[in-house]
Design a protein that fits this description.
3 domains; eleven-stranded mixed β-sheet; alpha+beta; homodimer; five-stranded mixed β-sheet; BirA Bifunctional Protein, domain 2; Translation Initiation Factor IF3; 27 strands
C-alpha cells in the first residue's frame, strides 16, 4: 500500500523535499524566473500580513514608530564600517546604470552611475546617515524607529521562505544616550521576539547570545532566538544586535551630552523576516501538509457543505451559510473569527484535502444527514485527518473559539516535547560525534538535535567542529547560574554549556 | 511687519518653495544622500499607513487579495511588450553585478550577471509571467491580486512625495476571461480611487480617460483621477489601465475557454502611490503648514497643558491626562480617537506652533484658568490659528468627534469651491492662451486652472499646445451627454470638451 498521506515524500523519507512539497501543496509561494526571488502567493502573504500586524503592535507598545528609508545605499556608505562591508560584500546586488537603450537590436544598460548603489542587504548605514542629521543633543535621544521593507542578499542556494535573495522583513534601528540603555533595548526586543515566537507561532525558541564568529558584521553583541524544526536542525528565527558605538562612529552620530561634551550615540538593530514563516511550517507541518497555529492563521475555520443529492442541496447550503455567519460573530484572540465557506462544485474529498494541505486549523463538514441530526462534523488540523467530533450546531458556534485556543496550546506543547526529546547534555567528543552522525551514511536520515555541550570560548574549537561535523554554536543560552565545566574538544575550562546544532 | 504665518515663503510668494517648507516644518520627509530617494519620517509614514489600511480594506471588499512579486525583472521580460519597455527605458535602475570586492584599495562591483536585472518600475511583466503559469482554464479566472511595494523610476528632477526615484505604492493586477469583465474591473477600481480621494483625502478629483499620448506604456486605455492643487496645477493622483490583451500576449497568459478554444486573458492594472500624500498636502495646506483631513490623520487631537505656575502644574497635568483618556474612549470614523498629550517642558507657544505645522486637526489647550472655569480652548486646524472655542470638558468629550467630521466636510467643500472657481469653459485660442500665461513674465505667479476646451482628438493639437504653453490634456471627463463643438486650435469638429491644465 502506498502512503495514505497527502504529501510525498514524507518527512522521514526526505525532509528537504517534503518542505518544498508542503509549500507547494498549500499554495503559499513559488520560485520566480529571477534566481532566488520568490513569488509569495495570497495564502502565504496573508500569513505575513497577520504576523506583521501582531509584531507591529508589539513594537508600538514598546515605544517604536515606523518610518521608511531608501532602498539604495551608496557604495561609500556601506564601506564606512569595515566589518560590516566585509560581511555583506559577497551577497550585494549592485545598481550601476540608470537607463536602457536599444543598441544593435539589443537592449543594454546605459547611463553609468558615478557611484554604484547597493540594494540594501540591511540598513544600518543608510539609517545611520539619517540619524547623524537628526541627533544633535541628548534631548534628541532615544530614536526608536522600525521599518517594514524588502532587502536583498544574493543567495547561491535559495530555499523558499528560508533563504531567498529578496525577502521581506522588519528592521528596528535605535540610538541611545548610554550603553546601558542600548543594551536594555537590545534585550527588550529579543524578548519581544521570543514572546511572539512562543505565543503566536507556537515555537519554543532558545534564547541567548551568538558566539563572536556568528555575530552580525559590525555588532558588538548579537542575540538570537533559535528554533528546532522537525529534522532536528536549528533555524535562527530572529536577531537583536547591540552595535555599541561602531556604527555611530562610522556614520558620525554625535550628540551634545548632559555635561556639555560631545559623545557618539549607542545603537541597536533587530529584525525578523519571512523566514519566520518557513520556520513555523517546518516545526509544525505533518505528512499531510502545513499546520497553521490559529493565532497567525489567515483563516480559522472552513465550512465544507456536503451536497451529494440535488434535493437536499439548497437546505445544506443554507445551513452552511447560516453557520458561517454565526461563527463570524464569534471572536478568537480578540478579533472576529475568520471563516471560509467553500461552496465550489467539486468533490467533498477533494475540497477536504485541499484545506488539510492549506493547514487551516478547523474543518467543519455539514451534509444532509447532519442536517437531520442537527450536528456538524469538526476536524482539527492538529489531529489525524480522519478524526472527527460531532457537535450540535449550538455547540460548534459556542466552542470553536475555545478549540482554536486548544490547538494553539497543543502545537506549542508538541513542539516543546519534540525539542526536549532531542536536546541532550553531551560531555564527550565521541558522544557528540555520534549524536551528529547519521547511522546510514548512504541515506542522511534525520538525526542530531541540540547538544548542550561545554565550550572553552575559542574560535579554534568552533571552526574545528564546524569543519568536522557541520555543527555550529547556535547560542550561548541565558542562564541564571551558569555551571562551569570542561570543553570536551580542547580539555580547557568552560564557563557554561552552549547549544550546538546543525542549522539552516 | 513680517508675515505672522509659520511658513515662509507663503503660497502666493513661491508655491514650490512653500511646499518644500511645509513638508519640512511638519517633519514628514526629507531628501536622502541617494539622489531622488526620500526618507519618510514617522509623521509622514503614519499617513501612508493609514491610507494603506483604508485602501486595503476597499480592495478586499471588491474581491482582491494581496500577494508579493519579485523586486527584479530580467531585462528580457521587460522587453516583451514593445511600447512598455520604450516607455520605461529612460528611467530604469539596472542591477548588473552581485558582489563587491576590494581591488587596489577600492571597493568595486564584481560578479557580472549573465542577464541584467531591472529594479521594477511597475510589475506588469513579472506578474504576467506568474499569471501565465497559473492560468490554464477559464475556471482559473479572474485572478484579482494587489501588491503593496516599492518601485523605482529614475528621476532627474525629484520632488518630495510627488516625484521620487523610489516610491511606495500599490499595484493591482487582474486577469479576466472577457474584454467586458476586464473593462468593468478597470472602471470599478477607478471609482474606488475616486471615492477614496473624495471621502478620505477631501479631494474633489476629476475622473476620466487619458488621451492616447498620455496612456500608460502598453495600455489600451488609461483612466485617471486628477486633482487640482492650490497653484491651480493638476496632479494625476491615481490611474487604472485596461491593458487589453497586450500584456497577456507578451507574457503568454492563455486559457482554455468555455467552448474549448485557447484564448489570451484580458488584463488590467491600477495603482496609487505616496504621491497621494503630496497631492493632499498641496491641496489643503495653508501659510501655517500642512492641514490633515481627519479621516487620514495619524492623530486627531493634541492636548496642550499650559503650566505657567508651579503650584497649579500638577492639577493641570492631571486634568489633561484625564481628558486624554476620556477622549480615547470616543470614536471617530468607527475607530478610537487618536489623542496626543504633549507634556514636554517647552513653551506653550512653541508647542502650539509645532502642532499647527504638523497639521493635526484639533488642538485643545488646558491651563489653570480653564481648570477654574471647567473649560478647555479648542482650535480647529481649518480655521485661522488664533480662533478658539471655549467648551466645557463635557462638551469637548462629547463633541470633538462631530467637529472632526465637520473639518473633513469643510476641507472638501473648500477644495471644491477652489476647483470650481478655477475651472472655466474656454472656446477661443486667445482666451486659452491668456488663461495659461502669467501676467508678469518676470514672476510666474499662480495662474491658470482647468480649461474645459474642445479638442479634435488629434495628437498634433496636443503636441502643439504642450510645446507652446506646457499645457496638456489631463483627462477626457466622463460625461453622460457629451456636447460636440469646435476645436479652437484646429477648427475641426470635437466630440466633447476635455480638461486642459498645467501639471506636476
Amino acid at each position: 500500500m502506498k502512503s495514505q498521506n497527502a504529501i510525498s515524500p514524507t518527512r522521514s523519507e526526505d525532509f528537504p523535499e517534503w518542505f518544498q512539497q508542503i509549500v507547494r501543496a498549500a499554495d503559499l509561494a513559488e520560485n520566480s524566473e529571477v534566481r532566488g526571488c520568490m513569488v509569495i502567493k495570497p495564502w502565504g502573504y496573508a500569513l505575513w500580513e497577520r504576523m506583521r500586524w501582531v509584531l507591529d503592535g508589539m513594537f508600538k507598545a514598546t515605544g517604536h514608530r515606523n518610518a521608511y528609508f531608501p532602498l539604495f545605499i551608496p557604495l561609500s556608505h556601506l564601506a564606512r564600517e569595515a566589518a560590516h562591508v566585509e560581511g555583506f560584500a559577497k551577497e550585494c546586488a549592485v545598481v550601476t546604470h540608470h537607463r536602457l537603450e536599444m543598441r544593435d537590436g539589443k537592449l543594454v544598460p546605459v547611463g553609468e552611475l558615478t557611484e554604484p548603489l547597493v540594494v540594501r542587504p540591511t540598513s544600518e548605514t543608510i539609517i545611520g546617515a539619517a540619524y547623524a542629521r537628526w541627533v544633535k543633543s541628548w534631548r534628541d535621544l532615544p530614536v526608536l524607529l522600525n521599518q517594514w521593507a524588502n532587502v536583498v542578499r544574493w543567495e547561491m542556494r535559495p530555499r523558499l521562505f528560508l533563504r531567498t535573495a529578496e525577502f521581506l522583513w522588519q528592521e528596528g534601528h535605535t540610538a541611545h544616550e548610554t550603553r546601558a540603555e542600548a543594551e536594555e533595548e537590545t534585550l527588550r526586543m529579543l524578548r519581544v521576539y521570543e514572546r511572539f515566537a512562543r505565543e503566536y507561532l507556537a515555537l519554543p525558541v532558545c534564547v541567548g547570545e551568538k558566539s563572536a564568529g556568528e555575530r552580525f558584521p559590525g555588532a558588538e553583541r548579537t542575540y538570537c532566538i533559535e528554533a528546532m524544526v522537525q529534522d532536528r536542525k536549528a533555524i535562527q528565527a530572529g536577531t537583536s544586535h547591540f552595535l555599541g558605538q561602531n556604527f555611530s562612529k562610522a556614520s558620525d552620530i554625535k550628540f551634545q551630552s548632559r555635561d556639555g561634551g560631545i559623545e557618539h550615540a549607542w545603537t541597536t538593530s533587530w529584525g525578523v523576516s519571512t523566514r519566520l514563516i518557513g520556520t513555523m511550517l517546518m516545526a509544525h507541518g505533518d505528512d499531510d501538509g502545513i499546520i497553521l497555529p490559529p493565532r497567525v492563521a489567515s483563516a480559522h475555520v472552513v465550512i465544507l457543505p456536503i451536497t451529494p443529492k440535488e434535493e437536499s442541496r439548497a437546505a445544506v447550503l443554507a445551513a452552511a451559510t447560516d453557520l458561517a455567519s454565526r461563527l463570524r460573530d464569534q471572536r478568537f484572540d480578540g478579533l472576529p473569527l475568520e471563516v471560509e465557506l467553500d461552496t465550489r462544485d467539486v468533490g467533498g474529498g477533494v475540497k477536504n484535502w485541499e484545506w488539510i494541505k492549506k493547514g487551516i486549523p478547523l474543518r467543519v463538514e455539514i451534509g444532509p444527514r447532519d442536517l437531520e441530526q442537527g450536528t456538524v462534523a469538526v476536524s482539527r488540523r492538529d489531529q489525524p485527518h480522519k478524526t472527527k467530533s460531532f457537535l450540535t450546531v449550538e455547540e460548534a458556534v459556542a466552542r470553536l473559539p475555545e478549540i482554536l485556543g486548544d490547538i494553539q496550546a497543543n502545537l506549542l506543547a508538541r513542539a516543546e516535547a519534540f525539542q526536549n526529546e532531542h536536546t541532550r547534555k553531551i560531555d564527550s567528543q565521541e558522544e557528540f560525534k555520534a549524536f551528529f552522525t547519521p547511522k546510514n551514511p548512504e541515506k542522511p536520515e534525520i538525526h542530531g538535535g541540540f547538544a548542550l555541550t561545554h565550550w572553552d570560548g575559542s574560535a579554534a574549537v568552533e571552526e574545528q567542529v564546524k569543519a568536522d561535523l557541520k555543527v555550529t554554536i547556535r547560542c550561548i543560552p541565558f542562564e541564571e547560574a551558569p555551571e562551569p565545566g570542561i570543553c570536551p574538544f580542547s580539555g580547557n575550562p568552560s564557563p557554561q554549556r552552549v547549544i550546538w546544532a546543525k542549522s539552516y
